[in-house]
């Protein structure tokens, strides 16, 4: 499913058939990953980029006192460690579920981007959107209630997964535990659990066994004060 | 470069040279970017949320921040920007601003037309790499702030912010005898760290009482860098500076050695 990569890039700018082929041909090999596998870790100086083709993953960093902060969730089509092209890794990326990754050698990526500047813009745009997501999470953590934070995260994932064709009717797979949710949103496990119950109780969603079902989208976006603008999906908002 | 670069172009080049290596040709190409200079007073929007700018803003003098306003009139400051930074470089590729860029002090900005920057990035892959790298470091700083708001104590958050601005200022040669400018109010510091002004005030008193820093007007003097760094749980690795002196932990040293790759 290498086409997931080009589909993701094209959320931020059209690529010609030639450009798409050049991008897809950069993936020199694919391999299966197990759930909970570290795809790239802090301190690594990668020579390849890893594009997620199947399954989901998360970015995280453990602070010296042992507390973990999750900083993003990744879905198929995302390049997990594009920053490795220019910077060493200052955080980890770990898979959430069994899946598949594709490997892109940095040398090949550089070459394709030089020949096809539009592909460079699209790749750069994906890293800029990631940065916008980090900022949005920071705003949430600094200023939003637990209730709004959880609703906001679910809205974000639904919009991103819908653009990737991963939402069926009103359902999508989001294989995280309540612990992941707590570590992403800076909440205690008890608080997360109680807040999920409240969202369910109000008929906005159900979230069980890694499956998210949206029952009331307008209600959920209102609860999360969610505006998809920061995802910059031109003409593709939910 | 008959007349040499303007002081504004020199600021940009100096900043980029803290994070990457530029050839003579690349530096000369950067000096050809036409700049529109503009002075600003404090609390001005340089690039407001919702706008679709055709230029990016290079900070020449003064302190600038990115922020978002939330429904209840609350503000979250998401980053601080020093002379040489281009805080809205993202608008080169993401057309609509998803936050505002505003001044915290008076100062000067130089606006770079996107068309001129795109022309350079199409012709000089290493300039693309330098600017892209800058935006990635910016993202790394955001992640660090995210971890701070999520997981650090009030003391750590404030000390961490002081450490960050100190190290970034030093890389830009803006530190003199241990002192650097951080012209920010306690309310603004609260907006950046998710703390109340009262809480910020108490933490600053503690940092002073522990002889870590003194704050005089617009300026901070670092009295004991090592203890301040420990109090903040600060590791400069995420700033990915080329010449950061070895205050780093083994972990960050590994990160730096990765840059040689």
Protein architecture, described:
The complex is a heterodimer of chains A (238) and B (261). With 238 residues, chain A is α+β, with helices and mostly antiparallel strands. Chain A contains eight helices and ten strands. Chain A has helices at 3-9, 17-25, 106-115, 117-143, 146-163, 178-185, 189-201, 217-223, and strands spanning 29-33, 38-40, 48-54, 57-62, 68-74, 92-95, 99-105, 171-173, 205-208, 211-214. In chain A, the strands form three sheets. Chain A has a four-stranded antiparallel sheet. With 261 residues, chain B is α+β, with helices and mostly antiparallel strands. The two termini of chain B are 32 Å apart. In chain B, the strands form three sheets. A four-stranded antiparallel sheet of chain B has the order 2-6-4-5. Chain B has a three-stranded antiparallel sheet with strand order 1-7-3. Chain B has helices at residues 7-17, 24-30, 114-123, 125-151, 154-171, 186-193, 197-209, 225-232, 250-257, and strands spanning 36-40, 45-47, 55-61, 64-69, 75-81, 100-103, 107-113, 179-181, 213-216, 219-222. Chain B has two domains: 7-138, Jelly Rolls (Sandwich), CATH 2.60.120; 152-260, Winged helix-like DNA-binding domain superfamily/Winged helix DNA-binding domain (Arc Repressor Mutant, subunit A, Orthogonal Bundle). The chains are: A alpha+beta (238), B alpha+beta (261). Chains A and B meet through helix 3 and helix 4 of A and helix 4 and helix 9 of B.
Number of strands of chain A: 10
Q: What's the rounded overall pLDDT mean of chain A?
A: 94
Helix content class of chain A: 40-55%
Strand order of the largest sheet of chain A: 2-6-4-5
Distance between the termini of chain A: 23 Å
Entry keywords:
heterodimer, A: 238 residues, alpha+beta, Jelly Rolls, Arc Repressor Mutant, subunit A, 2 domains, four-stranded antiparallel sheet, three-stranded antiparallel sheet, 8 helices, 10 strands, globular, B: 261 residues, disordered C terminus
